[in-house]
Design goal:
alpha/beta, Rossmann fold, 13 helices, 13 strands
Length: 382
């Protein structure tokens, strides 16, 4: 990995400190080890201290990720521009939709080079509406001077190319956010006769939590001892977020067991037989599925953008039709009826796939090499 001479100041901008810490921690470590001063700009939802402990500077700024309120968006542009003008980073790196759009516009107005990551396109792109056209237009006007755009799946990359967005800079596809394969390791359970499925991800309707709950109800009638767990956060700033009232009702029915949010998901993963994410959200590549595969857990997910990049059907899990409870029940039933050694083999196949394509060290190297090239060209121009 390249080590950078001098003190290059890199600013990472994303919606929340939780996502930066949980999804970009390994990248930040690699950046700091390579000689960068890293400054994180995001909303502090409790993880500021964790990022500071990594060696980052931190600026708290409110970002309403799901809002289309123009006043909020203008305020975000102004606030980001103030932060960028005050700290004058050598390079900006934006994650999530609002920072990618308004952060890029702010950076362009100040002449600061920018590298962006398109980690999925979210709820607005789940169905093509006037909002989708508006956001595409915002992407088009904001990305014209971006130096490098990273995409996590080919569908997002092709959408940007077909709409002539960010064509002047480099377009590079990477394999998701990557995962620390030395930490997320298999811990083969002793066969106990018990079985547990786990929905693992943000608890949004578009992530398929409703389909999971309906499938669990049907399967409970046939397999009363099987557990159906849900690990994730309720109450995200997203129109697809389920309410606490729904969670409470499901808990009273005693079909779904809510585990809440945990900072270290590995112990829970290692005691799970199959991870289920029947998402129809416009994913990048779901981090939860990469972590599950690295830990040797078979996966059931949708044959949909991003999700199918981490699962090969009948190799390390099963693919299901979008929003089809019937198909989900069939595939979960099929997983239950595999024998123990078949499930272990399926999980280890997923582990092999992650080692080859999704290791965070390989992905961090791609980031750092491209960032270093941008900075080298910038120095020549100056």
């Amino acid at each position: 990995m390249i080590r950078i001479s001098g003190n290059n100041r890199l600013m990472i901008v994303s919606n929340t400190s939780w996502t930066v810490y949980n999804f970009r921690k390994e990248l930040i470590k690699s950046l700091i080890a390579s000689g960068f001063q890293v400054h994180v700009v995001s909303y502090d939802d409790g993880y500021k201290s964790h990022l500071i402990d990594l060696g980052c500077d931190f600026t708290n700024i409110p970002i309403k990720g799901s809002s289309l309120n123009p006043f909020n968006d203008v305020a975000l542009f102004i606030n980001l521009r103030k932060v960028y003008r005050k700290h004058r980073p050598d390079l900006l790196m934006h994650f999530t939709i609002k920072p990618v759009i308004y952060g890029s516009l702010a950076a362009s107005s100040l002449g600061i080079p920018t590298v962006n990551n398109i980690a999925g396109l979210g709820s607005i792109f789940s169905a093509f509406t006037w909002k989708t056209r508006l956001v595409l237009w915002l992407y088009k006007i904001s990305q014209s001077k971006v130096k490098v755009t990273f995409f996590q799946n080919k569908e997002d990359q092709e959408l940007f190319q077909s709409n002539k967005i960010a064509l002047k800079g480099k377009s590079i596809r990477i394999k998701g956010s990557g995962v620390n394969t030395e930490y997320f390791i298999p811990n083969t359970k002793i066969e106990s006769g018990e079985f547990s499925f786990m929905f693992f991800g943000r608890i949004l309707w578009q992530k398929g939590i409703g389909e999971f709950e309906k499938a669990a109800k049907q399967l409970t009638q046939k397999y009363p001892k099987v557990k159906f767990n849900v690990l994730g956060i309720v109450g995200f700033d997203n129109p697809s977020s389920i309410s606490q009232e729904v969670v409470t009702r499901w808990e009273k029915e005693k079909v779904i067991n809510f585990l809440g949010r945990v900072d270290d998901v590995l112990p829970t993963l290692q005691n799970t037989d199959c991870v289920v994410l029947p998402s129809y959200y416009r994913e990048g590549v779901p981090r939860s599925l990469i972590e599950a595969a690295s830990a040797g857990i078979p996966i059931i997910t949708t044959d949909h953008v991003g999700c199918r990049d981490i699962v090969k059907d009948s190799y390390n899990g099963f693919l299901v039709e979008k929003q089809s409870v019937e198909d989900l029940v069939v595939k979960m039933d099929a997983m239950l009826n595999l024998n123990y050694s078949e499930r272990v083999k399926m999980g280890l196949n997923g582990r092999d796939l992650v080692l080859k394509e999704f290791d965070v060290n390989a992905i961090s190297k791609i980031y750092i090499d491209e960032i270093s090239e941008v900075l080298s060209k910038q120095r020549v121009q100056n």
